[in-house]
Write a structure and sequence with these properties.
This protein is mostly helical. The chain has five helices and no strands. The chain is globular.
Length: 73
């Protein structure tokens, strides 16, 4: 899960600081999520999924499709 969060951020060409600001959190907290040093709370995972337009299943590693589940593409 943590690697996917990092990959999504990098694909969006965001810095860790920018990603943290978009999620309204301190950069250190965000960095700990990416490193797997801290569990990502469900509400934060939802925000990350919305930010990058992917499903929670993708973030959790249950699917390799980045398309949100509700999207039939």
């Amino acid at each position: 899960m943590y690697q996917r969060v990092r990959d999504l951020r990098e694909d969006a060409e965001l810095t860790q600081k920018q990603a943290a600001e978009m999620l309204h959190m301190h950069r250190t907290t965000y960095v700990r999520y990416e490193r797997g040093e801290r569990e990502i709370p469900f509400n934060v995972a939802i925000l990350i999924a919305k930010q990058h337009n992917v499903s929670l299943d993708y973030i959790a590693g249950l699917t390799n499709k980045k398309i949100p589940i509700g999207n039939k593409k």
